[in-house]
TrEMBL record:
Transmembrane segments: 194-213, 234-263, 269-290, 302-328, 334-353, 395-414
Protein name: Predicted protein
PROSITE patterns documented for this protein: ABC_TRANSPORTER_2
Keyword Transmembrane helix: yes
Main localisation: membrane
Keyword vocabulary terms for this entry: ATP-binding, Membrane, Nucleotide-binding, Transmembrane, Transmembrane helix, Transport
Topology versus the membrane: Multi-pass membrane protein
Organism per entry: Naegleria gruberi
Coiled coil: none
Length: 821
């Protein structure tokens, strides 16, 4: 007689539930009872139970177990252990690993069962394969007992086939703690994308900070001013960051392998590398784009960490395994998927989860343990994820990361040109439509038209020299290296710009504006050095900054070698050498490296460059420390290096903004010599507050006040024009002070006593009385040569430049305050 029994394995052992059908012999009375139960083997000194069991209150289960115990003469607490519930039994098995061979638990029936089912679970030790076959024998014994006892119960009167009884068997491995790999699986699945994308975010912060620091300290602009192409600057950083990305990708993948992470061990190396590299590439491009909005490195860090924090939150929600795939399903609008495609961590998370789902150990609920994934091959990269048809293949995710990068680079290119940040001329929002941007030169009229308000401004000038300069600036027949025509510069804030666009003039004017340059006309010729003098805020640096393209003029024109700085700034910069008012140096480069860098930017051959570096450093006494980092330099040494930088590469125009500020007298003399020697064959504009410097170095001196040119000419001419004549110094022999006053006042009528101190007199002889000087001088000589003469010593000097300066600027200050009131 045979009985068909259904044995249910756990439904999730495979995707389809499996049913095994066993044919079992019904035992006959007394048959196989004397068989030996399995020999108990455990570790030495560890108790070994043949079987642990619980009937969990099921009386028939208790009967079956009693039959087993009596058949095989099993002894309680020696051969077997009894528990009151499954929970209690599993807890014991968990805490007593390898102390039993089998476990048996009878499970209460489901109340929905229509037949009287006896369910039991057999527990086995998955690490002891030699016991797997005996497990089936044990099942056979138990099943035989069940059938025997049921038949006994039915008194063999009814065919079991027609009865309402059935038996259900489950298998379970002994409970055990999660292994490190299982824990890894959970960690990777839940937070892997977040963890790895957050670590990559630091690349974004570092690159953003680097870009903004160079902008903040005008290092970028300094190189651009010295002739470096924007594209070269951009490429140099891009290549640097790409190398960092390469290293980052390699360290990530190799690190994962070294630390035995399944995802890195079971996936294709090239795919992993591509994923990490493309991700860091997209983040770097994002940092380029973000850098266009920030001026200060402090803000760059704030922005970088804000992006990191937002990414962290978004990653935890969106980039989480299930949600990433959900976004692709047709239940969710494609809008979200498209939007998130522009968010690199999302694309990264998608591919990461693709790889993780094939490489990480999966929990097999049939086996009740984690089994290693099938692995992620290079072909899987091009195939969609099998279980979700709507999820695109991984290569699309990586492709999107590269596309994101390109998209951010295009935005960077646009914003960098349109947003000036005070670091260069801002271009029109449609700059890319102009052929000149792409280097295509269209036909342009050579005729230079004078600004329309020329007549008004001309009549406004008070002095002839300024009027002459006005005309000279417009005389294109006279060659000039620098030609500045009616230059104006107004610094207006954001609100002021808006106000001028939307409000009537009289209201808009209420929003503060700073007129740094009001009407400047200036010409500098070849072999000429013009000094710009003026009070703080007179507009000297602004003039220079417009010539270098740092600021864009609000009105008027500026030309260098007949090239308009507004439209041909790149060509202009090739001819410039600049020493800015504030040193722009890299702390971690030496003086020699600085000069070689700028020499290279100017395109001078290496050999010649080395010679120039040596002679320039010699000329300012820096050759001994030329190989030291500039962060170790004093302020004066940095200044001298800045002067050398301006002079390297034979520029056509050298702009020196207060070059000798902070230099000791010896270094200053050296710097003067260098500047003096450099004058030959080029034009130079120098700003200074030291009158002796202007006197010594310049061919012409221009004094500015409140953004306007107040006087211009050679040192002699402005002294004679604006000076107050001559100063006569007389030292009287004691007791003859009054006689001296009488004598001199007799000779020169309009004489002024400037100072009188213990017999030392300073008189001012006005210009119209200069004719009287010869008479006076011969009288002085006579008096001083006589032993009993009234004069001990005397001297005469022309008005100093300082006096002229004070006179001119005081006058303009007066008119300025008068205008204001
Ligand atoms: N970026 C700017 N934004 C707003 N105002 C500015 C800016 N740069 C300069 N100014 C203003 O323009 C005016 C002229 O400044 P500039 O630097 O040209 O003076 P300067 O003659 O070089 O003075 P100093 O001798 O102190 O160097 C000043 O009032 C200054 O405040
Ligand atoms: Mg200045």
């Amino acid at each position: 007689m045979s009985l068909i029994m259904e044995v249910n394995f756990d439904k999730s052992i495979l995707t389809q539930p499996t049913r095994n059908i066993h044919e079992i012999e019904i035992p006959r009375e007394g048959n196989s009872k004397k068989l030996q139960f399995y020999e108990c083997k455990a570790a030495p000194n560890v108790p070994c139970y043949k079987i642990v069991y619980t009937s969990d209150g099921i009386s028939f289960g208790e009967t079956v177990m009693s039959q087993l115990v009596s058949d095989y003469q099993l002894k309680l607490d020696k051969d077997f252990k009894n528990f009151t519930s499954v929970k209690e039994m599993e807890a014991w098995m968990f805490s007593h690993q390898n102390e039993t061979m089998f476990g048996l638990a009878f499970i209460p029936n489901s109340i929905l069962d229509t037949v009287d089912t006896l369910s039991y679970t057999l527990y086995y030790n998955r690490s002891r394969e030699e016991l797997h076959f005996p497990l089936l024998s044990l099942q056979n014994i138990i099943d035989n007992n069940i059938i025997y006892l049921r038949m006994k119960e039915l008194n063999r009167t009814q065919d079991l086939m027609d009865s309402r009884y059935s038996v259900q068997v489950d298998y379970k491995s002994f409970p055990q703690p999660l292994t490190t790999k299982d824990g890894q699986t959970l960690v990777f699945k839940i937070s892997g994308p977040t963890f790895f994308s957050i670590s990559a975010m630091f690349i974004l912060i570092v690159s953003l900070n680097n870009l903004v620091v160079e902008k903040e300290f005008r290092l970028r602009f300094s190189m651009i001013m010295m002739g470096m192409k924007e594209s070269a600057y951009f490429l140099s950083w891009l290549i640097t960051f790409l190398v960092i990305s390469l290293v980052f990708a390699l360290v990530n993948v190799l690190g994962g392998m070294i630390f035995q992470m399944s995802i890195f061990l079971n996936a294709n190396f090239v795919v992993l590398f591509l994923l990490f590299f493309s991700f860091s590439f997209s983040l770097i491009c994002l940092s380029f784009f973000l850098s266009t909005f920030i001026k200060e490195s402090r803000n760059a860090l704030i922005l970088g960490f804000t992006v990191l924090a937002i990414s962290f939150i978004l990653n935890l929600t969106v980039s989480n395994g299930g949600i990433v795939y959900l976004l692709y399903s047709d239940k969710i609008s494609p809008f979200f998927y498209i939007i998130f495609s522009f968010y690199p961590p999302f694309n990264f998370a998608k591919v990461f989860i693709d790889i993780a789902s094939k490489t990480l150990p999966e929990y097999d609920s049939a086996l009740r343990r984690f089994v290693s994934g099938p692995g992620y091959s290079f072909t899987d990269f091009f195939v969609g994820k099998n279980s979700y048809d709507y999820v695109p293949a991984s290569w699309i995710g990586v492709g999107l990361l590269f596309l994101d990068g390109l998209f951010f680079l295009i935005l960077y290119w646009y914003c960098d040109n349109v947003i000036s940040d005070g670091n260069g001329i801002r271009k029109s929002p449609i700059f890319f439509l102009y052929p000149s941007y792409w280097g295509i030169q269209c036909f342009r009229s050579k005729e230079h038209k004078a600004p329309s308000d020329d007549n008004i401004t001309f009549s406004k000038f008070e002095t002839d020299d300024v009027k002459v300069e006005f005309k000279r600036a417009r005389d294109w027949s006279q060659p000039a290296i620098v030609r500045i025509i009616s230059l104006r510069k107004t610094f207006s804030g954001f609100f002021s710009r808006i106000a001028h666009k939307i409000l009537p003039q009289k209201y808009a004017d209420k929003f503060s504006e700073k007129k740094a340059l009001k009407e400047l006309n200036l010409v500098v010729r070849d072999n000429e050095c013009v000094s710009l003098l003026g009070h703080n805020g007179a507009g000297k640096s602004t003039t220079m900054n417009i010539l270098t393209g740092l600021f864009e003029q609000s009105h008027g024109e500026a030309y260098v070698s007949d090239l308009d700085v507004k439209t041909s700034i790149s060509a202009v910069r090739k001819q410039l050498g600049i020493c800015p008012q504030h040193d722009i140096l890299w702390d971690d480069l030496t003086a020699e490296e600085h000069l070689e860098l700028f020499g290279d930017l100017k395109g001078i051959p290496r050999k010649e460059c080395k010679e120039q570096v040596k002679s320039l450093l010699d000329s300012v006494e820096l050759s001994k420390v030329g190989h030291h980092l500039t962060k170790t330099y004093s302020g004066g040494m940095k200044r001298r290096l800045s002067i050398c930088i301006a002079c390297i590469g034979n520029p056509k125009l050298i702009l020196l903004d207060e070059p000798t500020t902070g230099l000791d007298p010896y270094s200053r003399k050296k710097a003067w010599n260098l500047i003096h020697n450099m004058k030959k064959g080029r034009a130079m504009i120098l700003t200074t507050h030291a009158m002796d410097e202007a006197d010594y170095l310049s061919d012409r001196i221009a004094i500015m006040a409140n953004g306007e040119l107040k006087c211009i000419g050679t040192s002699l001419s402005i002294k004679s024009q604006y000076g107050s004549g001559y100063n006569l110094m007389v030292v009287a022999n004691s007791g003859h002070e009054d006689s001296i006053l009488t004598l001199i006042q007799h000779k020169v009528k309009d004489l002024k006593v400037v100072s009188e101190n213990a017999g030392n007199f300073i008189f001012n002889i006005p210009k119209h009385q200069v004719s009287e000087l010869s008479d006076l001088i011969s009288e002085m000589e006579k008096q001083s040569s006589r032993i009993d003469g009234i004069i001990k010593d005397w001297g005469i000097s022309q008005t100093t430049l300082e006096e002229v300066y004070l006179k001119v600027t005081q006058k303009s200050e007066f008119s300025f305050s008068k205008n204001k009131t």
